[in-house]
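Support request from a user on the community tier.

User writes: "When I paste my structure tokens into the form, the page sometimes reloads and wipes my input. The last time it worked, I copied everything first. Here is what I submitted, just in case something in the input itself triggers the reload:"
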């Protein structure tokens, strides 16, 4: 075989190896979401790729047979084609024995480098850039190869399946998409500029609804505006003027005996008709939805849809009212700063790069998000920042009390009748600040404290 014929043969083997490398990586890297989109757009080849992905055994067997066979042939042809010429060149400066060794090494390195560059690195980079487009183009040639090499494919598949069963290895690709997968995709889309940061935050908040419990979005007990059933006309009017909200719980004697709720529109209708405001006859009182405080936001949203209500009272295991939640509260949690009120109502205020001023009743999930922490200790025992401080101190916190944890100092700044109003959170000097991530402002729910 002449030098020209040998070089042509090496080039053909490199091209063949590149074909199998591209086919292997294109199938492995193809995203099913993108393939489904291509199928919906009319490319029927995408369906074939998805079918092969579900049972890739024969496909990958062919690629490995091709890659290994070509590599062996490339070494044989390359050594025989280039060694004599490289040996003659080395003999100009070296003895014959040393020249043969140098010629062989140079031939081996040259052929190996060509295969690494043109049959491995470049094809795989191209395949990773456009895996779906290449997978649909290479599918039919690969199916032909499977047919031609059927006996070898059957033999190697039989042996591979036996080894898989012996070692109890997974043999079927898991195509389930988890919430973590979706979040990873949206984060990649945000970094690539496909999704806006706010859009990515909304998606993350939606996925978080299955883990966040209702106390993280509710209006706390001491901030609920409510009526007593025996309240006279002038008190009801004064309450509406002072706290003009759309919905008010109605209680019998105290807040822990909720009998229903009244819609502000019904009260306004009576005022416009010059009728007295009275809750004693019960005609204005509507049946209220009662939910336990252990429900997630997703479960509360389901209950709102089932009973066609947008207001609920939250009870703890002792049948005591711990708060109220509205559909707007749930949606505000999802939408974040897209529906946030004025800045003076924020529960978390970032003072500078290393400190935050946080309301004591702020849900612990929002604190974790603002500080970019994964968890706090004993997080099953509390739902707010004030609860975290009580658990860590093992007593009711006083002003200037502090807790150091996770590279942060949590210091109580203001206490009102044993209620923690403000907490100053400072990043400790020994901790390097993480990459800043915009945090949507966490706002109080639109229900004011009772008079």
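"...and here is what came back when it finally went through:"
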């Amino acid at each position: 075989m002449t030098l020209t014929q040998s070089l042509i043969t090496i080039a053909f083997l490199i091209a063949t190896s590149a074909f199998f490398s591209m086919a292997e990586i294109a199938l492995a890297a193809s995203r099913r979401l993108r393939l489904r989109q291509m199928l919906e757009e009319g490319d029927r080849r995408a369906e074939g790729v998805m079918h092969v992905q579900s049972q890739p055994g024969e496909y990958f067997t062919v690629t490995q047979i091709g890659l290994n066979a070509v590599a062996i042939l490339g070494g044989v042809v390359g050594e025989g084609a280039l060694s004599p010429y490289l040996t003659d060149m080395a003999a100009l400066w070296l003895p014959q024995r040393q020249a043969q060794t140098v010629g062989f090494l140079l031939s081996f390195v040259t052929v190996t480098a060509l295969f690494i560059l043109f049959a491995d690195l470049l094809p795989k980079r191209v395949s990773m850039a456009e895996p779906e487009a290449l997978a649909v183009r290479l599918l039919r040639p690969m199916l032909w190869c499977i047919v031609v090499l059927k006996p070898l494919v059957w033999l190697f598949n039989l042996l591979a399946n036996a080894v898989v069963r012996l070692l109890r290895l997974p043999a079927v690709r898991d195509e389930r998409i988890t919430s973590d997968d979706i979040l990873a995709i949206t984060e990649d889309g945000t970094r690539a500029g496909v999704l806006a940061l706010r859009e990515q935050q909304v998606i993350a908040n939606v996925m978080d609804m299955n883990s966040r419990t209702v106390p993280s979005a509710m209006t706390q007990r001491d901030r609920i505006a409510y009526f007593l059933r025996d309240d006279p006309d002038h008190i009801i009017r004064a309450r509406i003027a002072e706290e003009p909200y759309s919905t008010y719980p109605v209680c019998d004697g105290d807040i822990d005996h909720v009998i229903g709720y009244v819609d502000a529109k019904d009260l306004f209708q009576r005022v416009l008709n010059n009728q007295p405001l009275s809750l004693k006859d019960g005609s204005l009182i509507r049946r209220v939805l009662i939910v336990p405080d252990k429900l997630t936001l997703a479960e509360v949203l389901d209950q709102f849809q089932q009973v066609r209500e947008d207001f609920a009272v939250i009870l703890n295991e002792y049948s005591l009212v711990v708060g109220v939640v509205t559909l707007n509260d749930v949606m505000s949690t999802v939408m974040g700063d897209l529906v946030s009120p004025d800045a003076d109502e924020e529960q978390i205020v970032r003072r500078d790069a290393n400190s935050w001023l946080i309301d004591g009743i702020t849900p612990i999930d929002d604190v974790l998000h603002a500080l970019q922490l994964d968890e706090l200790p004993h997080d099953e025992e509390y739902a707010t920042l004030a609860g975290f401080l009580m658990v860590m101190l093992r007593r009711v916190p006083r002003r200037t009390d502090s807790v150091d944890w996770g590279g942060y100092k949590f210091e109580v700044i203001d206490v009102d009748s044993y209620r923690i109003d403000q907490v100053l959170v400072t990043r400790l000097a020994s901790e390097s600040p993480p990459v800043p991530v915009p945090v949507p402002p966490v706002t109080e729910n639109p229900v004011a404290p009772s008079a």
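Agent notes: The reload is a front-end session timeout and is unrelated to the input. The chain has four domains: 3-167, 179-208, 214-336, 354-427. The chain has a mean pLDDT of 81. Escalated to web team.
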